Amino acid sequence: MPSKKYEVIIGIEVHAQLATLSKMFCRCAVEADAPPNTKVCPVCLGLPGILPQTNKAAVELGIRAAQALGCKVKPESRWARKHYFSPDLPKGYQITQYEYPLATGGELELPGLGKKVRIRRLHLEEDAGKLTHTSRETLVDFNRCGIPLAEIVSEPDVRSPEEADAYLKELRQILRTVKASDAEMERGRFRCEPNISVRPLGQKELGVRSEIKNLNSFKAVREGIERAVADQIKWLEEGKEIVQTTYLWDEHKRELKPMRQKETAADYRYFPEPDLPPLILDIEWVDKIEKQLPELPAKKRSRLLEEGLTEQDIRILSAEPDWESYYLELLEKGMSVKEASTWLLNETRGILSARGEQITQFKVPVAQMASLITLLRGGKLSRPAAKELLAAMADSGKDAEVLIKEMDLGTVSDEGTLEETAKKVIAENPDVCEKYRKGKTNVIGFLLGQCMKELRGKADPESVRKFLKRFLD
Ligand SMILES: [Zn+2]
Fold first, then answer.
1. How far is 51 from 301, CA to CA, in rounded Å?
2. Which residue windows are transmembrane per the record (predicted)?
3. Nearest residue to 198 via CA among 214, 213, 209, 187
């Protein structure tokens, strides 16, 4: 990206679906897979005479998300109506928070980049329905109407597609860690809307913004931003006037399709929601929620660094949430940072990349990986055998214990056999033993190697060493 002459300024809005069982203002169930238009009621359909009521669970999840982002939760926030016309918005307006959001003023550190992005606000709102366009008609499903969302708005602190990527991955990880949202992107539960402007280096005022709506994958965010930046630079160079525009990203053609020229807030005719009282929070309740927050990703990472994880491993894990959750589950099962790094980030990564597979396709469950490591640790498996075993497990999906028998990989732990082997090797190498007794104790490595050869690698080297020493000393 040509960045010598221009500066790229990016702000990002995210809509995250809060993980409640029922909707924001009615008791309808939140069920993604329910048949269309079956999870609806007069409230979420906006029929006359209705009275919405706020879902306390949604507020709690919003508070949790806000606290995890370091935002200040407001003791009082208010609901507003945002008006616009769309066939998937039966009320003709969306209930949201406008001048008085739930929380403001947080920040998020981009892992590995040593940079912070400020969070302007987090507010609660309801989702609209869903339109499906076919070649002949447009279908509408109101099941999604009224599902609770947290809208999280960053300050324009992001400077590149890479930073946007890091910001969104970390934000998603935080929301998942505090269980505010499952943030599943492919299901539309973590939708990203970057706004991008470009200005000549040194210019004070901001350029005109291009907004991209509803991006549902990290790849789409990266490519969409790259496209918007390239377009804007081209227009600037051509001396063309840039008009503030909202775009949709066409993933197949890899281009931005103009959707509308941006409305201003006045176009939405915001006004206070007359059917809902202000949201007044019990401070003690808010404090209690904060005390119950789990360890957040940034803190977890610095702890793992102290426990011996390398910066590079941290970067891999924070860039790839699926690897990170597998890794953390291994630690929860009692594996050390070093063991988890060796067997997951080295061995497993190697196996999967050779097979062209993702960690989500890995056939070895965490518990099985943990038993492999435990067997190795206990000397019941040699290191080369453990590697062979892992490859076979990834291949077949069979349990470690089963494969060890099938492949005859277990170590010889019968003391008699180890003793005999040690004696035999000592007898066959009198000159080496002589050197050892004269003080060159490191030659024991050679003897150990001979023993392991005799045992076809299937012994715990430490046990063999013990016998060798006993007979030599
Ligand atoms: Zn409803």
1. 46
2. none
3. 209
How many angstroms separate the most distant Cα atoms in the chain? Answer: 100
Q: 13, exposed or middle or buried, with CB in 10 Å at 0-12, 13-18, 19+?
A: middle
What distance in angstroms lies between residue 88's CA and the mean position of ligand 1's atoms? 14
Q: What is the pLDDT of residues 274-320, one digit of tens each?
A: 999 999 999 999 999 999 999 998 898 888 888 888 888 887 887 77
The reply to whether 283 falls in a domain is yes
Ligand 1 center from residue 372 Cα (angstroms) = 50
- Tell me the CA–centroid distance for residue 26 and ligand 1, in Å: 5
CA distance 44 to 144: 9
The set of residues, in sequence order, having a beta carbon less than 8 Å from that of 310 and lying 6+ positions away, is 341
Say whether both 251 and 343 belong to one domain. no
Please, are residues 189 and 181 in contact by the beta-carbon 8 Å criterion? yes
350/420 same-domain check: no
Domain count, the chain: 3
Q: Which amino acid is at 54?
A: T
- What local confidence, expressed as pLDDT, does residue 457 receive? 76
The CA 354 to ligand 1 mean position distance, Å, reads: 49
Q: What is the pLDDT of residues 413-422, one digit of tens each?
A: 777 888 888 8
**Residues, Cβ < 5 Å to ion ligand 1:** 26, 28, 41, 43-44
* Burial (Cβ within 10 Å: 0-12, 13-18, ≥19) of residue 143: buried
* Residues 323 and 357 reside in one and the same domain: yes
Task: Provide the domain limits for residue 107.
Answer: 6-289
Same domain, 18 and 52: yes
Residue 214 C-alpha to ligand 1 middle, in angstroms? Answer: 24
Which of these, 405, 434, 9, lies nearest to 200 by C-alpha position? Answer: 9
Give me ligand 1 centre to Cα 328, in Å.
38
- 221-235, 256-270, 443-457, range with the lowest pLDDT: 256-270
Average pLDDT, the chain: 91
Q: Are 256 and 223 in contact (CB under 8 A)?
A: no
Residues 145 and 243 grouped into a single domain: yes
Centre of ligand 1 from the C-alpha of residue 185, in Å: 24
447 CA from centroid of ligand 1 (Å): 76
